[in-house]
Specification:
Layout: E1 18-20, E2 27-30, E3 35-38
Antiparallel strand pairs: 1-2, 2-3
Protein name: IS1 family transposase
Organism: Streptomyces tirandamycinicus
């Protein structure tokens, strides 16, 4: 099983100086703005992926 992807930038200030937090799984700390945040994958949407090609009839 592969590891989860790490965030590339802070969602608050946009800086890239992030470190994993000791608060647990999915927790990160930004050294630039001194904020901590947690990321969590909630799941896939029930509707799935919808492709809209702009309308028109199909023949």
């Amino acid at each position: 099983m592969s590891e989860r992807a790490a965030p590339f930038y802070c969602p608050y200030c946009g800086d890239e100086d992030l470190r994993p937090s000791e608060q647990g799984h999915g927790a990160w700390e930004c050294a630039s703005c001194n904020r901590a945040f947690r990321l969590k994958f909630l799941g896939l949407l029930a509707r799935g992926v919808r492709h809209d090609d702009g309308g028109g009839e199909t023949i």
